[in-house]
Amino acid sequence: MNTEELFSKLENADGDELKELKLWLFKEGIRISNEAQELEGRRIIFSREFEDAKEENRKYEEHLSARAKQLRVNEDLIEQKFTAIKRGFDELDRDRQALNRREAAIHDKEAQLAEMLKYGHAYGSDDFGDALFVGADNPLLLKKRYKDLMKMYHPDCPGGDTEMMKTITRAYDRQLKDYEAYSGTGMRRA
Predict the structure, then answer these.
(1) How far apart are the first and last CA of the chain?
(2) Which CATH superfamily is domain 123-190 in?
C-alpha cells in the first residue's frame, strides 16, 4: 500500500477499520524494525568481512613484497655467481691461450733443433750445444746427460757422428765451467 492510499483510508476509516489500520501499522513498524535490525546485523557482518578482507589483502601485499625482495636478492646472487663463473672462464681462456703460446714456442724450438740436427751445420754452434744440456742444473745431472749423449753419438754407434761428439764435449766443458763459476756465489745459470 502506498502513502496516498493509506492517508485516504485513514480519513475515511471508521472505528474497526481504524483499529485494523493501527494493527497493520504496528505490525508494519515491527517488521521494518526487524528488517532494520537484520540490515544492521548484515552491515556489521559485512563491515567485519570488509576489514578482514582488507587485512588479508594487506598481509598478501606484504607477502608479495617480501617475495619480490627475496627474488631480487636471489637475482643479485645469481648475477654475482654468473659474473664469478664468467670471470673464471675468462681466466681459464687466458690460461689456455698462454699455454697454447708456450706450447707453440716449444714446438718452434723443437722444430729449430730438429732442423739443426737434420742439416748438421750447427754442430759448432754454442746455442746448439747448450740446448742439449737444458735442465741439467747440477754437476751430477750434467755428467749423466753428457754420458747419455756420448752413448748416442759415439762414432762406433749407428748414427754416431764425430763432429757431434766434439760439439757435445765443448758444450759440456763450458756448462761445467759456468756451473762451477756460479756455484761459488750461490747463483745458477738460467
Answers:
(1) 122
(2) DnaJ domain (1.10.287.110)
- pLDDT, tens digit, 9 for 90 and up, residues 8-33: 776 776 777 778 877 888 898 999 99
Residues 6+ apart with CB under 8 A from 159: 152, 153
Q: Which three cell numbers stand for residue 45?
A: 557482518
Interacting residues of 6 by C-beta distance below 8 A, sequence separation 6+ = 21
Please check whether residue 170 is in contact with residue 129, taking contact to mean a CB–CB distance below 8 angstroms.
yes
Residue 48 pLDDT: 95
Q: Of 163, 137, 136, 165, which is closest to residue 149 (Cα–Cα)?
A: 165
Single-letter amino acid, residue 117:
L
pTM reported for the whole predicted model:
0.37
- Report domain extents, the chain: 3-73, 123-190
Look-up: residue for cell 742439416?
119
Handedness of CA 148, 153, 157, 163 (dihedral sign): negative
What percent of the chain lies above the pLDDT cut of 70?
86
Radius of gyration in angstroms for the set of CA atoms belonging to the chain, rounded to a whole number: 55
For the residues of 53-77, what is the DSSP string, one character each?
HHHHHHHHHHHHHHHHHHHHHHHHH
**How much is the pLDDT for 163?**
86
| Relative orientation angle of helices 3-12 and 15-119, to the nearest 10 degrees | 170
Q: Which amino acid is at 160?
A: G
